[in-house]
Amino acid sequence: MRVLNLVNSFSIPDTIRYRITPHGDGVIFCLWEVAPSDVREQPFLFKINQRLASREEAQELLKNYLESLRTG
Fold first, then answer.
1. Mean local confidence (pLDDT), 37-42
2. End-to-end distance of the chain based on CA atoms, in angstroms?
3. Which of 15, 19, 47, 60 is 20 to 30 A from 27, comparing alpha carbons?
């Protein structure tokens, strides 16, 4: 699922994946980067799971991450 309310102005690279899932009174934000090769043990370069208070907070975190990729 890609929720883009706060990140419409950012292009999301094909290798970046994320999911925002409701959980209790907040959400779980999962962000990962797909590995460029199938030779790896795991199909991703990194993966984070973060419990956050709201979908908006998760979208802001995603926006900040995408911005950091863009600006280096």
1. 71
2. 26
3. 15
| Beta-carbon count within 10 A of 7 CB | 19
| Gap between the Cα atoms of 31 and 16, Å rounded | 7
DSSP 12: P
Q: What value, to the nearest 5°, has the Cα angle with vertex 13 and ends 59 and 40?
A: 105
Q: In sequence order, what E strands does the chain have?
A: 16-23, 26-34, 44-52
- What is the C-alpha separation between 8 and 72, in angstroms, rounded? 19
Region 25-39: mean pLDDT is 89
pTM of the model: 0.77
Half-sphere exposure of 27 (CA within 13 A, CB side): 17
